[in-house]
Predict the structure.
Amino acid sequence: MRLRTHIYSVLALVGASHALAGEPTANDWGPVTNNAQMAISVTSSWSRSFVVDTNVQPPQFKVKREIKVGEPFSLLVRVRNLSTNETLSCYNAWEPNTDLEVGLACEVISPSGKDLSPSRRIAGGSGNSAVARPGETTQYEFGLGWLCKLEEIGTYKITARKRALVAPKGEKAYVLTSNTLSVSVVPGKE
């Protein structure tokens, strides 16, 4: 009985440490599609950070569960490659864009149920690819706060979709769907 209690305590601490570290747990990832998954979370305002070289330590983002009305924010997008033999690539334009191919399509539902999903499509432009080798996770920032203002107090639901492809071949493209993120918006400073 004591051993079982000890094991449960250790498991609870491990789970809490992942949550506090801002790392997605199993339920925070979207569905597996072609050996890949995507997860989103809210972070501070957009700094145009891309992780290109997976040998470089990615920038540390402060993941948030709530933001204040009018507070700048962005999405931290993580893509996990579960494949054992294919490299995954997601191209992203520098400017926030809701096109599946060069941006991130986001569905945003307000606390009152109103669809606030942004629509901003630009053709082409400069950008970069987030690359995940087999068994790796890559991440990048998406400036959703530039495209969508969260001004109603309460909990918003955000889901993202992104086109990914197997690199360098490029012939195998598919769409990843993220977890559905709940973001609380609270009153800001008066």
Remarks:
- Confidence is low (pLDDT under 50) at residues 3-22, 48-59.
